[in-house]
Amino acid sequence: MSIFTPKQSRPSPKTQVGILSWTTKYLFSSKIDIALSLFAFYLLYLILPPLLDWMIFSADFSAKTNAECTREAACWFYIGEKMNLFMYGMYPLEEYWRPNLLLAITLSFAFIVRLLRFQPYKNKAALALFIIYPVVAFFLLYGNDFLGIKIVETDQWGGLMLTIVVALVGIVASFPIGIFLALGRQSRMEIIRFLSIAYIEIIRGIPLITILFMASVMLPLFFTEGINFDKLLRALIGITLFQSAYIAEVIRGGLQAVPKGQYEAADVAGLSFIQKTVFIILPQALKISIPNIVGSFIALFKDTTLVLIIGIFDMLAIAELATSDINWMGRKTEGIVFVAIVLWSLLYLMSRYSKALEGRFNTQY
Predict the structure, then answer these.
(1) Quick check: is 25 in a domain?
(2) How many domains does the chain have?
(3) Its pTM surpasses 0.90
(4) Torsion of CA 175, 179, 182, 185, to 10 degrees
(5) Most buried one in 39, 63, 67, 220, CB count within 10 A?
């Protein structure tokens, strides 16, 4: 009896693996793709060489003053000179330890939640951290006389610190409100459904810049004399109300994507409406909606730059303010490019985290 001996498999053709395969598949797979790819390469040829030359190759990294920056390119020492302003705004120099400590606490909380991911009490621990964190953040940034922490008024906050505060508060506060609005829009109670639909449609029909303007200028007119409502708090409320309407529509899409059989199975199991919603329907809807939810949060992060119109100095506003220094006039471009790089980096990390969540919850089909 002969014994069958399989031959060693031959390597894949070079055209089917590696960079050549990827290029053929994604850039030159059809005539339209070839035309678009060539056009994109032409645009990159027009944009990248002068941009890289201005940012890196001809840039001045050693000039200590604006007068020493004689090259027709970027002068990056300006960014280092104004780095504290970009990061903290007008926050007192001697109090920088407070936002730095808050950043360390934030990273620690994120690490702790990740460690507790597979523990049976993870939800309770996450909820406790979720409740404790805003309190700790408020007392660290704003201060408290009783605790011996110097009070720093919000009009001194600014830079990247303020941008992150506005974005995080808007994201965290709008998410639960958006869930309730989405559930209210699908409620069988007419009054709740009507109010939810009315709120969502009205807010979505108003630009954020209008809401911020109303919160900053018009809202104080309705207060009695002597009442002073913090400008930053008004902006945070306006951003939260605005974003919650969009989150509600995103989650409503997820609720509608849940198969009808899941509702029927929960009813057959004898679950109450709250149990069915919290344990069966809502987790699936949120899982389906992860890409759109993160997309809304990214859009909100970018929209935080609009607080400039009401006199709140976020990172982009600081780029304008920093050029008012007579020693560094004419360096606005460097500031805007630096802000763009920082914001892009943060938003890219958010998008990558979204992809990680999709893979973790198997939302990629």
Answers:
(1) yes
(2) 2
(3) no
(4) -120
(5) 63
